[in-house]
Amino acid sequence: MNSSIINEILHKSDIVEVISEFINLSKTGKNYKGICTVHNDTSPSLSVSEEKQFFKCFSCGISGNVISFLEKFQGMSKKDSIIFLAQKYDINYKSFDHIENTRYNENQKKIIKVLVDATNKFSYDITFQENSKAINFLKVRNLNSDIQNMFSIGYAKPSNTEGYKDFLLKKDNDISTMINASLINEKENQTISDRIIFPIKNDFGDIVGLSARTLDPSEKNYKYINSSDSIVFNKSSIIYNFWRAKEVSKELYLVEGFMDVIAFARVGLYNSIALMGTSISEIHTKKLKNHSIVLFLDNDTAGLNATLKSIFFLFKVNIDVNVIRNSSIYDPDEFLNTNGEKQFLNLLNERISGIEFIYQHLLKTIDLSNSNNIKPFINKLNNYLKLCDQIIKSQYSNKISNLLNIDILEINKILNITSFDGDRQNRTILKKNVTNGVKDNKIKDTYIFININRLLLGMLKNPKLIEIYLSEKPFLGTSKYMQLASYIMSKKDDSFVENEQLELELKEIEKTKNYPKTNEEFLETIENIQKDKVNIKLNQNNIKLKNILAKNPDDQLIPKILQSSIKAKKVK
User: pTM higher than 0.85, yes or no?
Assistant: First the structure.
């Protein structure tokens, strides 16, 4: 067994994410808990530590790492477990290429097989067996044959007609497997009748469950019925269409239902996903951590609440979030059917950042003419802002200050933003070491401030450079410059409020020559600022060393200062 592959698997895999594919986990303190399926567990005895990447059942005593879990709970061999995890986390496992498909144990393979056989039957029946209700559903929803095939959409005929149970038995599927796959109940009766079928695939693209939509408009309580959880299907961790979307794009549209995902595919976009009727959770965000998300949820109260909650959970794991500004009453599928492809694609360009969505939502729902509501407004916004970086915090601190005419320092206190202590410090350093004694009123014309002025003017003249600024997050030296950067960015927002003092500052900056006009020039200016910053640090250390050596050559601070200079030179 190749130990380097095992070590890489244990390093890259997430035990909570893996176990949650098979067992429902809930967070309790630092750890997660679930029902142990090895013994007859009646209360959550299985504890999973994300920090230690270890599980233990405090009832039966079984324990181990992520590989042990697949061996002991899923009946896989060690080799099977390793290949399953290697495939899941894109780890090269060439030394195991000779092994056949080992992703699933025998019982899991049986359930997947019966679901594939059932899907083939349902697909055949919707294509070749005429049924007016099913055909009308496809026609009204504009689901052509290409879309039907892409999503394996099918139809389960009424139970009083030729059923699928006998067909599955003829395909060498046994009764117990059909029960485990939720295709028949304990009385051996078919569970799905006169419904449109949407197969559900896992992250590898294998069918692990079914969702069946009623064709009876009066049956509102059970519009969709889903497969029960099984050894291959866990509704709370599955993301519909994720297997396809994650291969298409790093940017994913998160929508509410199957038909919304299919609406995107109808206009040639295959990077949309949907949750299985559950709210977004930490298990979902673990899967989405390498992607950016564009939320396009329903515009009703439930959809709005889901959007607010989703933004919060995605912010917590540092996932970039945008929201489609949909002022209509329609969800994506309804919007496409009502307004057509062109308007649908245009709508997708109407997006704002997740934090701007929260800001505008709070402005609409909180009456700021009542001074008693000001602090609650700021605190609610801060629930999200505290999950953002310093630049975004500063930007919204500035917006709130302009909106409410409140001193920005007071806003910073509430938002817990610590102003950069660079104004006084860097002026002193530059005065002594960079400008060779230039007076304070000329400090702004020295090296680092010239480059920062160029940077800001570039953003002001070409707003497209703001994206690079947000990506690179360059050093800006002083709180004044951070505030100006935030103000420049806020000029793009609909809610922009002009600040007379900051406009005067910008007029001064506009006197700067040779500002960056292209992406390359902008990046070069950022690099120059970084070099200037290093020079300041080195000069600062030189002064400290000179002063200390003059007073006490054996001072214990000397090694620390030298180490700081070494680090600065490495950056340079």
Answer: no
